[in-house]
Amino acid sequence: MANKPAIRTGNSELIALIADEDTVTGFLMAGVGNADLRRKTNYLIVDSKTSVKTIEETFKEFTSKEDVAIVLISQYVANMIRFYVDSYKKPIPAILEIPSKDHPYDPAQDSILSRVKGMFSSESVASGRH
Amino acid sequence: MSGQGQRLVVVPTVTMLGVVKARLIGATRGHALLKKKSDALTVQFRAILKKIVMTKESMGEVMRASSFALTEAKYAAGDNIRHVVLESVKTASVRVRSRQENIAGVKLPKFEHYTDSSAADSRADLTGLARGGQQVQACRGAYVKAIEVLVELASLQTSFLTLDEAIKTTNRRVNALENVVKPRLENTITYIKGELDELEREDFFRLKKIQGYKKREIERKELEARLAAEISSNRFAMPLGSAGRNILVAGGEKDEDVIF
Protein backbone atom coordinates (compact mmCIF):
# COMPACT_ATOMS: atom_id res chain seq x y z
CA MET A 1 0.00 0.00 0.00
CA ALA A 2 2.71 2.37 -0.97
CA ASN A 3 0.41 4.64 -2.92
CA LYS A 4 -1.60 5.57 0.13
CA PRO A 5 -1.14 9.11 1.30
CA ALA A 6 0.56 9.24 4.65
CA ILE A 7 -1.75 10.18 7.45
CA ARG A 8 -0.49 13.11 9.38
CA THR A 9 -0.83 12.69 13.08
CA GLY A 10 -0.55 14.72 16.17
CA ASN A 11 -0.39 18.13 14.61
CA SER A 12 -3.16 20.65 14.80
CA GLU A 13 -5.15 21.21 11.67
CA LEU A 14 -7.81 23.59 10.55
CA ILE A 15 -11.38 23.30 9.46
CA ALA A 16 -11.93 25.15 6.20
CA LEU A 17 -15.32 26.52 5.30
CA ILE A 18 -17.12 27.46 2.09
CA ALA A 19 -20.63 28.63 2.88
CA ASP A 20 -23.06 31.49 2.97
CA GLU A 21 -22.54 34.40 5.29
CA ASP A 22 -24.76 33.23 8.13
CA THR A 23 -23.22 29.80 8.35
CA VAL A 24 -19.73 31.24 8.18
CA THR A 25 -20.56 33.73 10.93
CA GLY A 26 -21.84 30.99 13.15
CA PHE A 27 -18.79 28.83 12.73
CA LEU A 28 -16.47 31.78 13.14
CA MET A 29 -18.20 32.54 16.39
CA ALA A 30 -17.36 29.03 17.53
CA GLY A 31 -13.75 29.79 16.68
CA VAL A 32 -12.77 27.93 13.56
CA GLY A 33 -11.70 31.07 11.73
CA ASN A 34 -8.05 31.46 10.95
CA ALA A 35 -6.19 34.18 9.12
CA ASP A 36 -2.55 33.88 8.27
CA LEU A 37 0.02 36.65 8.11
CA ARG A 38 -1.16 37.81 4.72
CA ARG A 39 -4.74 37.94 5.97
CA LYS A 40 -5.60 34.86 3.95
CA THR A 41 -8.54 33.20 5.59
CA ASN A 42 -9.57 29.58 5.81
CA TYR A 43 -13.15 30.37 4.87
CA LEU A 44 -15.01 31.73 1.88
CA ILE A 45 -18.26 33.59 2.11
CA VAL A 46 -20.43 32.79 -0.85
CA ASP A 47 -23.07 35.33 -1.78
CA SER A 48 -24.90 36.17 -4.98
CA LYS A 49 -21.88 38.05 -6.30
CA THR A 50 -19.41 35.19 -5.86
CA SER A 51 -18.53 33.59 -9.16
CA VAL A 52 -18.39 29.85 -9.65
CA LYS A 53 -14.77 30.21 -10.68
CA THR A 54 -13.85 31.69 -7.33
CA ILE A 55 -15.58 28.86 -5.52
CA GLU A 56 -13.79 26.34 -7.69
CA GLU A 57 -10.42 27.85 -7.03
CA THR A 58 -11.03 28.14 -3.32
CA PHE A 59 -12.18 24.55 -3.19
CA LYS A 60 -9.04 23.40 -4.95
CA GLU A 61 -6.89 25.55 -2.70
CA PHE A 62 -8.46 24.21 0.49
CA THR A 63 -8.26 20.61 -0.61
CA SER A 64 -4.61 20.92 -1.54
CA LYS A 65 -3.60 22.78 1.60
CA GLU A 66 -1.38 20.95 4.04
CA ASP A 67 -2.94 22.17 7.25
CA VAL A 68 -6.58 21.59 6.39
CA ALA A 69 -8.17 18.45 7.77
CA ILE A 70 -11.82 19.02 7.02
CA VAL A 71 -13.52 21.16 4.38
CA LEU A 72 -17.09 22.09 5.20
CA ILE A 73 -19.08 23.17 2.19
CA SER A 74 -22.69 24.21 1.99
CA GLN A 75 -24.69 21.85 -0.08
CA TYR A 76 -26.00 24.42 -2.49
CA VAL A 77 -22.43 25.66 -3.01
CA ALA A 78 -21.31 22.08 -3.55
CA ASN A 79 -24.02 21.74 -6.17
CA MET A 80 -22.48 24.64 -8.09
CA ILE A 81 -19.17 22.78 -8.35
CA ARG A 82 -20.64 19.29 -8.17
CA PHE A 83 -18.17 17.94 -10.68
CA TYR A 84 -15.15 18.86 -8.58
CA VAL A 85 -16.72 17.61 -5.39
CA ASP A 86 -17.65 14.29 -6.96
CA SER A 87 -14.28 13.79 -8.59
CA TYR A 88 -12.49 14.46 -5.32
CA LYS A 89 -11.42 11.08 -4.01
CA LYS A 90 -8.77 11.66 -1.37
CA PRO A 91 -9.56 10.75 2.25
CA ILE A 92 -7.78 13.80 3.68
CA PRO A 93 -8.96 16.51 3.82
CA ALA A 94 -12.46 15.21 4.24
CA ILE A 95 -15.21 17.01 2.37
CA LEU A 96 -18.41 17.46 4.30
CA GLU A 97 -21.55 18.85 2.80
CA ILE A 98 -23.56 20.77 5.35
CA PRO A 99 -27.05 22.17 5.14
CA SER A 100 -27.48 25.90 5.07
CA LYS A 101 -30.26 27.98 6.43
CA ASP A 102 -31.90 28.92 3.17
CA HIS A 103 -31.42 25.61 1.49
CA PRO A 104 -32.80 22.50 3.12
CA TYR A 105 -30.55 19.50 3.19
CA ASP A 106 -31.13 16.89 0.55
CA PRO A 107 -29.36 13.62 1.35
CA ALA A 108 -29.81 12.39 -2.21
CA GLN A 109 -27.41 15.05 -3.51
CA ASP A 110 -24.63 14.31 -1.08
CA SER A 111 -21.82 12.59 -2.94
CA ILE A 112 -20.74 10.47 0.01
CA LEU A 113 -24.19 9.68 1.27
CA SER A 114 -25.36 8.57 -2.16
CA ARG A 115 -22.39 6.22 -2.30
CA VAL A 116 -23.17 4.99 1.20
CA LYS A 117 -26.79 4.41 0.32
CA GLY A 118 -25.88 2.62 -2.88
CA MET A 119 -23.44 0.44 -1.01
CA PHE A 120 -25.95 -0.24 1.71
CA SER A 121 -28.49 -1.63 -0.71
CA SER A 122 -25.90 -3.60 -2.64
CA GLU A 123 -24.35 -4.85 0.60
CA SER A 124 -27.67 -6.03 1.92
CA VAL A 125 -28.38 -7.69 -1.40
CA ALA A 126 -24.96 -9.29 -1.32
CA SER A 127 -25.40 -10.44 2.27
CA GLY A 128 -28.82 -11.81 1.37
CA ARG A 129 -27.27 -13.90 -1.33
CA HIS A 130 -24.65 -15.44 0.92
CA MET B 1 -1.07 -29.75 -23.44
CA SER B 2 -4.04 -28.08 -21.76
CA GLY B 3 -3.43 -24.88 -19.86
CA GLN B 4 -0.14 -24.22 -21.51
CA GLY B 5 -0.40 -20.51 -20.84
CA GLN B 6 -1.56 -21.06 -17.30
CA ARG B 7 1.62 -22.40 -15.88
CA LEU B 8 5.04 -21.13 -15.03
CA VAL B 9 7.89 -21.75 -17.37
CA VAL B 10 10.06 -24.10 -15.36
CA VAL B 11 12.38 -26.97 -15.92
CA PRO B 12 10.51 -30.11 -14.85
CA THR B 13 12.75 -31.42 -12.13
CA VAL B 14 12.18 -32.80 -8.69
CA THR B 15 13.81 -29.74 -7.11
CA MET B 16 11.53 -27.43 -9.02
CA LEU B 17 8.55 -29.50 -7.94
CA GLY B 18 9.53 -28.94 -4.33
CA VAL B 19 9.93 -25.21 -4.90
CA VAL B 20 6.58 -24.85 -6.63
CA LYS B 21 4.86 -26.91 -3.97
CA ALA B 22 6.28 -24.63 -1.29
CA ARG B 23 5.01 -21.65 -3.24
CA LEU B 24 1.57 -23.17 -3.51
CA ILE B 25 1.48 -23.68 0.24
CA GLY B 26 2.52 -20.07 0.72
CA ALA B 27 -0.13 -18.86 -1.69
CA THR B 28 -2.82 -20.88 0.07
CA ARG B 29 -1.85 -19.50 3.43
CA GLY B 30 -1.72 -15.96 2.09
CA HIS B 31 -5.11 -16.42 0.51
CA ALA B 32 -6.61 -17.56 3.80
CA LEU B 33 -5.06 -14.66 5.67
CA LEU B 34 -6.18 -12.08 3.15
CA LYS B 35 -9.66 -13.49 3.17
CA LYS B 36 -9.76 -13.14 6.93
CA LYS B 37 -8.52 -9.57 6.65
CA SER B 38 -11.15 -8.79 4.07
CA ASP B 39 -13.85 -10.19 6.33
CA ALA B 40 -12.63 -8.17 9.28
CA LEU B 41 -12.57 -5.02 7.19
CA THR B 42 -16.04 -5.66 5.86
CA VAL B 43 -17.42 -6.02 9.37
CA GLN B 44 -15.85 -2.71 10.31
CA PHE B 45 -17.05 -1.17 7.10
CA ARG B 46 -20.65 -2.05 7.74
CA ALA B 47 -20.48 -0.64 11.24
CA ILE B 48 -19.11 2.60 9.84
CA LEU B 49 -21.78 2.72 7.15
CA LYS B 50 -24.50 2.50 9.76
CA LYS B 51 -22.84 5.16 11.89
CA ILE B 52 -22.45 7.48 8.91
CA VAL B 53 -26.10 7.29 8.03
CA MET B 54 -27.09 7.93 11.62
CA THR B 55 -24.70 10.84 12.08
CA LYS B 56 -25.70 12.41 8.76
CA GLU B 57 -29.27 12.39 9.86
CA SER B 58 -28.47 13.87 13.24
CA MET B 59 -26.31 16.51 11.56
CA GLY B 60 -29.37 18.08 9.96
CA GLU B 61 -30.96 18.61 13.32
CA VAL B 62 -27.85 20.00 14.94
CA MET B 63 -27.33 22.41 12.08
CA ARG B 64 -30.92 23.55 12.30
CA ALA B 65 -30.54 24.19 16.01
CA SER B 66 -27.38 26.18 15.47
CA SER B 67 -28.94 28.21 12.67
CA PHE B 68 -31.81 29.01 14.96
CA ALA B 69 -29.41 30.05 17.70
CA LEU B 70 -27.63 32.32 15.25
CA THR B 71 -30.89 33.97 14.28
CA GLU B 72 -31.65 34.53 17.92
CA ALA B 73 -28.25 36.03 18.47
CA LYS B 74 -28.67 38.27 15.47
CA TYR B 75 -32.02 39.42 16.68
CA ALA B 76 -30.70 40.12 20.18
CA ALA B 77 -27.36 41.65 19.29
CA GLY B 78 -28.23 43.44 16.10
CA ASP B 79 -27.45 42.52 12.54
CA ASN B 80 -24.02 44.08 12.57
CA ILE B 81 -22.69 41.33 14.81
CA ARG B 82 -21.53 39.49 11.75
CA HIS B 83 -19.14 42.30 10.94
CA VAL B 84 -17.74 42.19 14.43
CA VAL B 85 -17.27 38.44 14.11
CA LEU B 86 -15.74 38.60 10.65
CA GLU B 87 -13.34 41.32 11.68
CA SER B 88 -12.14 39.60 14.82
CA VAL B 89 -10.84 36.52 13.03
CA LYS B 90 -7.26 35.88 14.00
CA THR B 91 -6.14 32.39 14.72
CA ALA B 92 -8.36 29.38 15.01
CA SER B 93 -9.12 28.31 18.54
CA VAL B 94 -11.05 25.25 17.51
CA ARG B 95 -8.71 22.93 15.73
CA VAL B 96 -8.59 19.35 14.68
CA ARG B 97 -6.09 16.74 15.71
CA SER B 98 -5.76 13.62 13.65
CA ARG B 99 -4.48 10.29 14.80
CA GLN B 100 -4.36 6.83 13.39
CA GLU B 101 -6.36 3.83 14.25
CA ASN B 102 -5.24 0.44 13.12
CA ILE B 103 -7.88 -1.99 11.93
CA ALA B 104 -6.57 -5.27 10.53
CA GLY B 105 -3.45 -3.56 9.25
CA VAL B 106 -5.30 -0.66 7.66
CA LYS B 107 -4.52 2.73 9.12
CA LEU B 108 -7.64 4.77 9.53
CA PRO B 109 -7.49 8.46 10.27
CA LYS B 110 -9.49 9.65 13.22
CA PHE B 111 -10.15 13.31 13.83
CA GLU B 112 -10.79 14.86 17.16
CA HIS B 113 -11.40 18.50 17.75
CA TYR B 114 -9.92 20.45 20.59
CA THR B 115 -9.94 24.02 21.73
CA ASP B 116 -6.66 25.78 21.65
CA SER B 117 -6.98 27.86 24.77
CA SER B 118 -3.95 29.99 23.97
CA ALA B 119 -5.52 31.10 20.70
CA ALA B 120 -8.97 31.68 22.14
CA ASP B 121 -9.01 35.42 22.02
CA SER B 122 -10.75 37.37 24.64
CA ARG B 123 -12.24 39.55 21.97
CA ALA B 124 -14.62 36.83 20.93
CA ASP B 125 -15.81 36.59 24.49
CA LEU B 126 -16.62 40.26 24.41
CA THR B 127 -18.70 40.01 21.28
CA GLY B 128 -22.16 41.24 22.01
CA LEU B 129 -21.18 42.66 25.32
CA ALA B 130 -23.40 45.66 24.78
CA ARG B 131 -26.48 43.58 24.12
CA GLY B 132 -27.47 40.05 23.44
CA GLY B 133 -24.40 38.56 25.04
CA GLN B 134 -26.25 35.56 26.34
CA GLN B 135 -27.70 34.73 22.97
CA VAL B 136 -24.28 35.09 21.40
CA GLN B 137 -22.80 32.66 23.90
CA ALA B 138 -25.64 30.23 23.31
CA CYS B 139 -25.04 30.52 19.61
CA ARG B 140 -21.36 29.80 20.11
CA GLY B 141 -22.23 26.75 22.14
CA ALA B 142 -24.61 25.55 19.44
CA TYR B 143 -21.99 25.89 16.75
CA VAL B 144 -19.33 24.17 18.85
CA LYS B 145 -21.75 21.30 19.23
CA ALA B 146 -22.28 21.31 15.49
CA ILE B 147 -18.53 21.16 14.97
CA GLU B 148 -18.33 18.17 17.30
CA VAL B 149 -20.83 16.30 15.16
CA LEU B 150 -19.22 17.41 11.93
CA VAL B 151 -15.75 16.37 13.04
CA GLU B 152 -17.06 12.96 14.00
CA LEU B 153 -18.80 12.70 10.68
CA ALA B 154 -15.62 13.73 8.90
CA SER B 155 -13.59 11.04 10.57
CA LEU B 156 -16.27 8.48 9.78
CA GLN B 157 -16.28 9.62 6.21
CA THR B 158 -12.51 9.41 5.83
CA SER B 159 -12.55 5.97 7.42
CA PHE B 160 -15.27 5.01 4.99
CA LEU B 161 -13.23 6.11 1.99
CA THR B 162 -10.02 4.52 3.27
CA LEU B 163 -11.74 1.27 4.18
CA ASP B 164 -13.52 1.17 0.85
CA GLU B 165 -10.20 1.47 -0.91
CA ALA B 166 -8.55 -1.10 1.39
CA ILE B 167 -11.36 -3.61 0.92
CA LYS B 168 -11.16 -3.23 -2.82
CA THR B 169 -7.40 -3.82 -2.81
CA THR B 170 -7.71 -6.79 -0.48
CA ASN B 171 -10.47 -8.36 -2.51
CA ARG B 172 -8.47 -7.84 -5.65
CA ARG B 173 -5.56 -9.63 -4.03
CA VAL B 174 -7.75 -12.45 -2.77
CA ASN B 175 -9.21 -12.92 -6.22
CA ALA B 176 -5.83 -12.74 -7.89
CA LEU B 177 -4.47 -15.41 -5.58
CA GLU B 178 -7.52 -17.58 -5.96
CA ASN B 179 -8.02 -17.29 -9.68
CA VAL B 180 -4.59 -16.68 -11.11
CA VAL B 181 -1.72 -17.59 -8.85
CA LYS B 182 -3.06 -20.79 -7.33
CA PRO B 183 -4.31 -22.38 -10.59
CA ARG B 184 -1.04 -21.50 -12.23
CA LEU B 185 0.96 -23.16 -9.48
CA GLU B 186 -1.32 -26.18 -9.51
CA ASN B 187 -0.97 -26.45 -13.25
CA THR B 188 2.77 -26.22 -12.91
CA ILE B 189 2.76 -29.01 -10.37
CA THR B 190 0.67 -31.27 -12.58
CA TYR B 191 2.88 -30.41 -15.51
CA ILE B 192 6.04 -31.25 -13.60
CA LYS B 193 4.53 -34.47 -12.26
CA GLY B 194 3.37 -35.50 -15.71
CA GLU B 195 6.72 -34.72 -17.17
CA LEU B 196 8.50 -36.66 -14.42
CA ASP B 197 6.19 -39.64 -14.96
CA GLU B 198 6.88 -39.46 -18.63
CA LEU B 199 10.59 -39.44 -17.96
CA GLU B 200 10.23 -42.38 -15.64
CA ARG B 201 8.26 -44.36 -18.16
CA GLU B 202 10.77 -43.53 -20.83
CA ASP B 203 13.56 -44.60 -18.57
CA PHE B 204 11.80 -47.81 -17.68
CA PHE B 205 11.14 -48.53 -21.29
CA ARG B 206 14.71 -47.82 -22.24
CA LEU B 207 16.00 -50.04 -19.48
CA LYS B 208 13.72 -52.83 -20.57
CA LYS B 209 14.77 -52.38 -24.12
CA ILE B 210 18.42 -52.43 -23.17
CA GLN B 211 17.83 -55.45 -21.03
CA GLY B 212 16.21 -57.10 -24.01
CA TYR B 213 19.13 -56.21 -26.20
CA LYS B 214 21.56 -57.52 -23.68
CA LYS B 215 19.61 -60.72 -23.25
CA ARG B 216 19.52 -61.25 -26.96
CA GLU B 217 23.16 -60.40 -27.22
CA ILE B 218 24.01 -62.90 -24.55
CA GLU B 219 21.85 -65.51 -26.21
CA ARG B 220 23.44 -64.80 -29.53
CA LYS B 221 26.86 -65.05 -28.02
CA GLU B 222 26.01 -68.26 -26.30
CA LEU B 223 24.65 -69.65 -29.50
CA GLU B 224 27.70 -68.55 -31.36
CA ALA B 225 29.93 -69.97 -28.76
CA ARG B 226 28.09 -73.23 -28.87
CA LEU B 227 28.18 -73.27 -32.60
CA ALA B 228 31.82 -72.42 -32.62
CA ALA B 229 32.52 -75.09 -30.12
CA GLU B 230 30.60 -77.60 -32.19
CA ILE B 231 32.30 -76.55 -35.38
CA SER B 232 35.72 -76.62 -33.87
CA SER B 233 35.18 -80.04 -32.41
CA ASN B 234 33.92 -81.22 -35.78
CA ARG B 235 36.88 -79.69 -37.54
CA PHE B 236 39.30 -81.37 -35.27
CA ALA B 237 37.56 -84.64 -35.68
CA MET B 238 36.48 -84.62 -39.27
CA PRO B 239 39.25 -83.35 -41.47
CA LEU B 240 41.85 -85.56 -39.84
CA GLY B 241 39.76 -88.65 -40.01
CA SER B 242 38.59 -88.12 -43.56
CA ALA B 243 42.00 -87.24 -44.86
CA GLY B 244 43.46 -90.25 -43.17
CA ARG B 245 40.74 -92.33 -44.45
CA ASN B 246 41.12 -90.90 -47.93
CA ILE B 247 44.77 -91.39 -47.95
CA LEU B 248 44.37 -94.75 -46.59
CA VAL B 249 41.62 -95.51 -49.01
CA ALA B 250 43.44 -94.02 -51.92
CA GLY B 251 46.66 -95.62 -50.98
CA GLY B 252 44.96 -98.83 -50.42
CA GLU B 253 43.25 -98.75 -53.73
CA LYS B 254 45.62 -97.10 -56.11
CA ASP B 255 49.20 -97.37 -55.24
CA GLU B 256 50.69 -99.67 -52.77
CA ASP B 257 54.15 -98.19 -53.17
CA VAL B 258 53.24 -94.85 -51.89
CA ILE B 259 54.00 -94.83 -48.23
CA PHE B 260 52.10 -91.64 -47.24
From TrEMBL, chain A:
A single GO molecular-function term is: proton-transporting ATPase activity, rotational mechanism
Which Gene Ontology CC terms are recorded? Answer: membrane; proton-transporting V-type ATPase, V1 domain
Q: Which InterPro entries match?
A: ATPase_V1-cplx_f_g_su, ATPase_V1-cplx_fsu_euk, ATPase_V1_fsu_sf
Keywords per UniProt: Hydrogen ion transport, Ion transport, Transport
Output the Pfam families linked to this UniProt entry. Answer: ATP-synt_F
On assembly, the entry states:
V-ATPase is a heteromultimeric enzyme made up of two complexes: the ATP-hydrolytic V1 complex and the proton translocation V0 complex.
Summary of the function given for this chain in its UniProt record: Subunit of the V1 complex of vacuolar(H+)-ATPase (V-ATPase), a multisubunit enzyme composed of a peripheral complex (V1) that hydrolyzes ATP and a membrane integral complex (V0) that translocates protons. V-ATPase is responsible for acidifying and maintaining the pH of intracellular compartments.
Q: Which family does it belong to?
A: Belongs to the V-ATPase F subunit family.
The identity of this protein, by name, is V-type proton ATPase subunit F
UniProtKB/TrEMBL annotation, chain B:
Concerning Pfam families, the annotation shows: ATP-synt_D
Q: Which GO terms describe its molecular function?
A: proton-transporting ATPase activity, rotational mechanism
Q: Which UniProt keywords apply?
A: Ion transport, Transport
Keyword Ion transport in record: yes
GO cellular-component terms in the record?
proton-transporting V-type ATPase complex; vacuolar membrane
Q: InterPro entries from the xrefs?
A: V_ATPase_D
Q: Does the keyword Glycoprotein apply?
A: no
Q: Which family does it belong to?
A: Belongs to the V-ATPase D subunit family.
Mind telling me what this protein is named? V-type ATP synthase subunit D
Q: Which organism is it from?
A: Zostera marina (Eelgrass)
